[in-house]
Design a protein that fits this description.
The structure is a single chain. The chain is an alpha/beta fold. It has 26 helices and 14 strands. The strands form 5 sheets. Strands 6-7-8-5-9 form a 5-stranded parallel β-sheet, sandwiched between helices. A 3-stranded antiparallel β-sheet has the order 12-14-13. A two-stranded antiparallel ribbon has the order 1-2. Strand 10 and strand 11 form a beta hairpin. Helix 5 packs antiparallel against helix 6 (about 145-175), helix 9 (about 210-230) packs antiparallel against helix 10 (about 235-245) and helix 16 (about 450-465) packs parallel to helix 19. The protein is elongated, with a radius of gyration of 37 Å. The chain starts with a strand and ends in a 10-residue tail after the last helix.
Length: about 625
C-alpha cells in the first residue's frame, strides 16, 4: 500500500486508490499519517477534526470515523494486518517507510546532504531530484485542516523550499543553470515573498546569459515586497542586484554554500598529559586565540606589554607570542592553549618546529616550512612555488577565506616566522621562542618558572601523589633544588618514577651536591644542561659576544646570585656602557633577569652551568 501526503492525499493499495469521501475521515487520516507511526491522543484528534470547537458527541463520532477507516485500511479483517490500532496513548497508523512519500522524501534528502558534504555532487543531484519528485503540490491540499495540520503544512512547505534551495546550489556547482531557472521560475510565482528563491533565480538567469531576465526578476521581487509587505528587498538581494548591474563575473545568491573539500590538516602534537598552573598565562592566551571574545589587556601582575593587539582596531590575524628561558615550558603551555582554541579554527591546524633552539640543528628556512604547509593545504608537490615570495603569496591566498591556527614552535627570530604568519582575519598564530620577538605585532606573554605549590603538584602528578604526600618536605626541597624549572621538575620526576626504591629525601640529597646536580637532571632524551647549551649557542651570534660570554662565566665562577651594573663592569674590566650591552644580550637570551635598577639575577641552575665553563674569579663578591 502507498500513502502520499506531499500533494493531494492518496492511499493506494495494489489496485485502485481508496476513495475516502467524508471530509472528517480525511482529516483524521491525514493527522495520523503526519505523526508517522506515533500515537495521537484522542483529544488531539478531536481538536483537529472539529477545529477546537467539538460538539458533545465528538468522542463517539470520532470512534465511528476511526472504525470506518480501520475497515478501509484492513480489508481482510485479520488482526495482524490491521493498519489503524489503538494504543495507550491514543491511535496510531502503521506505515512502513518504504510505503510513505514523506519518509522517502526525508531519507533521500538526508542522503543528498551527506553526498553534498562529501563533495559527491552528481550523487547529491540525483538524490535531491528523487526527493523533490515526490512532491505533487501543496501537502494534503484536498484535506480540511485543523490547527495541527496547518502547522504541519507550513513546516513541510518550508522544508520543501529549503531543499529546493539546496538542490539549486548543487545545480549551480554542476553548471546546470538553465534547469535550475526552470524550477525557480514556477516557485517564485507560488512564493513571491521568498527572497532566497528570487536571488537564486537571478543568478541562474545571469549565468545563462539572460542579464535582462535577471534584472527583471529583481524588479518583480521588489514590487511584490512593496505591495504585500511595504518593504524593500533585503541587503543581500540588493547587493546581488548591484553585482549584476556591474556585470561582475562571479555572483552568488544569498546564503549559497558549496561544500569545501579542501584539506583540513590536523598537525598539532599531542597535548601534554600533565599540565599544572599557568592560569594567568592561559587566560591571556585564550583571550588572544578564541575568536568570539576580543582579547583583554593583561592583568597588572602579568609580564609582557599591555598594548592592545593589532585586531583590537579591526582586521588582522590573531598572534600570540610566548617567550622565556630554556626549560620554562613554553611549548607545553602553547600546546595547551592551542588545543583549547582548536575548535575555533575548523579549517586546519598547522605545526612546525622551527629548530631555532637546538644547536645541533640548523633553523628551518621559511621557504621549507611554506612548502610543507602548502602541501598540507592541498597544493600538489610539483605546484609549490620555488621562491619564498611566490610561496608566501600562495600561502596567504589559501588562508584568506579560512579559519586556520598556525603553531610555530622554537622560533629563532622574528624574520624566520614573519613569512609564515597568516594575514587573514579568520586565522591565528602561536609562536614560541626564547628571546622576545618584540618586532611582531602580537600579544607577548613571558613564561617564567613555576611557583612552589605548582612545582610540587607537577612532581606529584608525574612521580606519584602518594609518594609526594608521604614526604612533603623532601618534595618541596626537590622543587627548590630544581629552581621550579618545569624541565628540571619533569626530569626529576622521571628519575624518581624509574627508581621506586629511592626515597624523595635520598634524591634531594643527591641534588644538593652542586657539582653533580646537572648530571642528576638528565634522563633519556631530556637534559637541563643541553637546553642551556642551546641558549648559549644563540649568545655566540650576538654583537659583543666575547664580553657577553665573559659576563656569563662571571656569574658561574664567582657563584653570584645577583650583581649590580657597576660591579659587573669592574669585574669585566670594561666601561659601564659595554658591560650594560653585554648584560642586555644575556637578558635577551634569557640567561639573566633584570630585578631592579641596574641589578641582575641568574637562575641557580644556570649559575651551576656557567660555573662548569668558567675558572673561578677569586675577587668577585656579590653586592
Amino acid at each position: 500500500m502507498r500513502f502520499q501526503l506531499l500533494g493531494p492525499m492518496r492511499i493506494q493499495p495494489a489496485g485502485t486508490p481508496l476513495r475516502i469521501a467524508a471530509p472528517k475521515q480525511r482529516t483524521l487520516l491525514a493527522m495520523l499519517l503526519a505523526h508517522e507511526g506515533r500515537p495521537v491522543p484522542v483529544s488531539s484528534l478531536v481538536a483537529e477534526v472539529w477545529d477546537e470547537r467539538p460538539p458533545s458527541s465528538a468522542v463517539a463520532n470520532l470512534r465511528t470515523y476511526l472504525m470506518r477507516l480501520r475497515h478501509l485500511l484492513s480489508p481482510d479483517g485479520h488482526p495482524d494486518g490491521e493498519r489503524l490500532v489503538t494504543s495507550d496513548g491514543g491511535y496510531l497508523l502503521r506505515v512502513e517507510p518504504a510505503e510513505f512519500d514523506l519518509a522517502q522524501f526525508e531519507a533521500s534528502s538526508v542522503r543528498a546532504r551527506r553526498s553534498r558534504e562529501r563533495g559527491e555532487l552528481e550523487a547529491a543531484h540525483d538524490e535531491y531530484a528523487a526527493a523533490l519528485a515526490l512532491w505533487r503540490g501543496t501537502p494534503v491540499e484536498d484535506v480540511p485542516l485543523g490547527p495541527s495540520l496547518r502547522e504541519v503544512v507550513a513546516h513541510l512547505t518550508e522544508r520543501y523550499l529549503s531543499t529546493v534551495e539546496e538542490f539549486t546550489e548543487v545545480q549551480f556547482a554542476l553548471g546546470r543553470h538553465a534547469a535550475a531557472a526552470e524550477r525557480l521560475r514556477a516557485l517564485t510565482v507560488r512564493h513571491p515573498l521568498r527572497e532566497g528563491l528570487r536571488g537564486r533565480l537571478m543568478v541562474a538567469l545571469y549565468r545563462c546569459g539572460d542579464v535582462a531576465g535577471a534584472l527583471d526578476a529583481f524588479r518583480t521581487a521588489r514590487q511584490a515586497l512593496a505591495d504585500e509587505l511595504h518593504v524593500e528587498p533585503g541587503p543581500e538581494l540588493r547587493r546581488l542586484h548591484q553585482a549584476i548591474l556591474r556585470r561582475e563575473p562571479d555572483v552568488e545568491p544569498p546564503g549559497v554554500h558549496i561544500p569545501d573539500r579542501r584539506p583540513r590538516p590536523r598537525q598539532l602534537p599531542r597535548e601534554p598529559a600533565v599540565f599544572t598552573g599557568r592560569s594567568t598565562e592561559l587566560s591571556l592566551a585564550a583571550q588572544a586565540l578564541l575568536r568570539d571574545d576580543p582579547p583583554a589587556a593583561p592583568p597588572p601582575h602579568a609580564t609582557g606589554p599591555a598594548t592592545p593587539p593589532p585586531w583590537a582596531a579591526g582586521g588582522g590575524s590573531r598572534l600570540l607570542a610566548l617567550h622565556g628561558p630554556a626549560g620554562a615550558g613554553k611549548s607545553a603551555l602553547a600546546l595547551r592553549a592551542a588545543h583549547l582554541a582548536a575548535g575555533h579554527y575548523p579549517d586546519g591546524r598547522l605545526y612546525s618546529d622551527m629548530q631555532g633552539c637546538a644547536p645541533e640543528l640548523a633553523p628551518l628556512r621559511p621557504t621549507e616550512v611554506l612548502g610543507r604547509f602548502l602541501r598540507a593545504l592541498g597544493v600538489p608537490h610539483g605546484d609549490v612555488p620555488a621562491t619564498q615570495a611566490e610561496a608566501a603569496a600562495v600561502y596567504q591566498s589559501m588562508l584568506a577565506d579560512r579559519r586556520v591556527l598556525v603553531f610555530l614552535d622554537n622560533a629563532a627570530d622574528a624574520a624566520q616566522v614573519a613569512p609564515l604568519l597568516p594575514a587573514g582575519d579568520g586565522c591565528a598564530a602561536v609562536v614560541t621562542s626564547r628571546p622576545m620577538l618584540s618586532t611582531l605585532d602580537a600579544v607577548h606573554v613571558s613564561v617564567g618558572m613555576l611557583g612552589q605549590a605548582e612545582s610540587v603538584r607537577m612532581l606529584a602528578l608525574l612521580a606519584g601523589e602518594a609518594r609526594v604526600a608521604a614526604e612533603p618536605a623532601a618534595a618541596a626541597d626537590i622543587a627548590l633544588l630544581c629552581g621550579h624549572q618545569p624541565l628540571a621538575l619533569r626530569i626529576a620526576a622521571a628519575r624518581l618514577a624509574g627508581r621506586p626504591d629511592w626515597s624523595l629525601a635520598r634524591f634531594a640529597e643527591r641534588l644538593r651536591d652542586r657539582g653533580r646536580r646537572l648530571d642528576e637532571l638528565q634522563t633519556a632524551g631530556l637534559s637541563v644542561r643541553s637546553s642551556f647549551e642551546a641558549s648559549l649557542a644563540a649568545l655566540k651570534e650576538c654583537p659583543g659576544k666575547d664580553v657577553a660570554m665573559r659576563a656569563f662565566r662571571l656569574f658561574g665562577a664567582a657563584d653570584l646570585p645577583e650583581i649590580g651594573l657597576a660591579h659587573a663592569a669592574e669585574l669585566l674590566g670594561v666601561a659601564a656602557e659595554e658591560a650594560e650591552a653585554a648584560l642586555d644580550e644575556l637578558m635577551k637570551a634569557h640567561l639573566l633577569e633584570l630585578i631592579g635598577a641596574d641589578r641582575f639575577r641568574m637562575h641557580e641552575l644556570l649559575r651551576i652551568f656557567a660555573g662548569e665553563l668558567a675558572t673561578p674569579l677569586k675577587h668577585a663578591t656579590p653586592l
